[in-house]
Design brief:
Number of strands: 13
Order of helices and strands: HEHEHEEEEEHHHEHEHHEHEEE
CATH class of the largest domain: Alpha Beta
Structural class: alpha+beta
Number of helices: 10
Low-confidence stretches: 1-17, 348-354
Helix content: 25-40%
Distance between the termini: 28 Å
Largest sheet: 7 strands, mixed
Strand order of the largest sheet: 8-10-7-11-9-12-13
Radius of gyration: 21 Å
CATH topology of the largest domain: 60s Ribosomal Protein L30, Chain: A
CATH architecture of the largest domain: 2-Layer Sandwich
Length: about 350
């Protein structure tokens, strides 16, 4: 459970919950308050823990796997679609999902926080609580960070993991390792997160079986264990579904120099999305919605079969249309959804984080 220490405990006054998050104390007192609130989600037992100019931990002669994501209010989330506890949760998931897509073992986080004029003490506490809860769930800890003020609230998280070596190379999942004849499988229910956002924006978050979809949007889980299992099975290719299934598979097709074909009928669309949004809309969200943080895995059929019901086979790797992913309908004709995915620089979603 998070520590309930306030700035009073740290020698600075604690502002009212509705007041500015940093107005009544200095930077270092606020950092200390956050570390205390993180509780056991803070990496206080590493060689140099949070509070110094930099954190230091042992790498154990393994390959270091690192990733970083930024979340900006209004672009990656809105106050009317999720609260700051959800933002904290999803910020961790998004980063750990990138580690999972490499088959890496998650380790530590560095968190940079830019406090906009609208954020309150209670809001910052909620973010830290969500950050801590997701960190515990995903097996990572916060090793340090930074806090500044700005025109908009923004959180940037860098995640660090590790991978064992196999000869001179770390054993990881790569986007450039797909081979003709491989099959494609995906975990979970692609499109569930986007369906949850659609229901929230329609004011239908409490309708029927919407709860599972809303949860998929606000509190998604990174598939770290599946990534590790894939490595153990000899699978060498994967990507996490953050920007849309077709668009993310395009990255594999391009970097591997192959074509990919997906059978629309095989995609495990969430039943609640079909019920509440209709089969056509639910399929389009599964193909292009993104933000699911599921894993798309590419390998031999026998390797993927060993993952059991954790994944569903949805397609194949082919020689034709190199560098492109094509979705096929029941008649084998190309199916074009409303969109293939999300572009961080070309789009402005405002509902969540990719």
């Amino acid at each position: 459970m998070a520590d309930d220490s306030t700035a009073d405990d740290l020698g600075s006054p604690d502002p009212a919950p509705g007041g500015p998050a940093s107005g009544d104390w200095g930077e270092f007192a606020l950092i200390a308050r956050i570390i205390a609130r993180l509780g056991d989600a803070a990496a206080t037992d590493i060689l140099v823990p949070p509070g110094d100019d930099a954190a230091i931990w042992l790498a154990d002669s393994r390959g270091v796997v690192a990733t970083i994501d930024a979340l900006t209010e209004g672009t990656h989330w809105r106050a009317d679609t999720m609260d700051l506890a959800d933002v904290g949760w999803r910020a961790v998931t998004a980063n750990v999902s990138d580690l999972a897509a490499m088959g890496a073992e998650p380790g530590y986080l560095l968190v940079a926080t830019c406090l906009g004029p609208s954020i309150t003490s209670a809001g910052l506490d909620a973010f830290v609580d969500g950050l801590a809860a997701s960190s515990r769930t995903h097996g990572v800890r916060v090793a340090g960070g930074d806090i500044v003020r700005g025109e908009a609230t923004m959180f940037t998280i860098a995640a660090y993991g590790s991978a064992p070596f196999e000869g001179d190379e770390p054993r990881t999942l790569r986007r450039n390792a797909a081979l003709v004849g491989d099959v494609i499988a995906v975990s979970g229910h692609p499109g569930a997160s986007a369906a949850g956002l659609a229901l929230i924006e329609r004011g239908q978050a409490n309708s029927g079986d919407a709860a599972a979809l809303v949860e998929a949007h606000r509190r998604p889980l990174a598939r770290t264990e599946i990534g590790r299992q894939a490595i153990a099975l000899g699978i060498r290719c994967a990507i996490d579904v953050s920007d849309g299934l077709l668009q993310d598979l395009d990255h594999i097709a391009e970097q591997s120099g192959v074509g990919i074909e997906i059978d629309c009928a095989a995609i495990p669309v969430h039943p609640a999305a079909v019920e509440l949004l209709g089969s056509g809309a639910a399929l389009d969200l599964a193909l292009g919605g993104g933000e699911d943080f599921e894993l798309a895995l590419v390998g031999e059929a026998s390797q993927l079969a060993a993952l059991g019901d954790q994944v569903t086979t949805i397609g194949r790797v082919v020689e034709e249309h190199s560098g492109e992913t094509i979705a096929l309908d029941a008649d084998g004709a190309p199916y074009r959804p409303a969109r293939r995915g999300w572009d961080q620089l070309a789009n402005s979603r405002g509902g969540g984080q990719s």
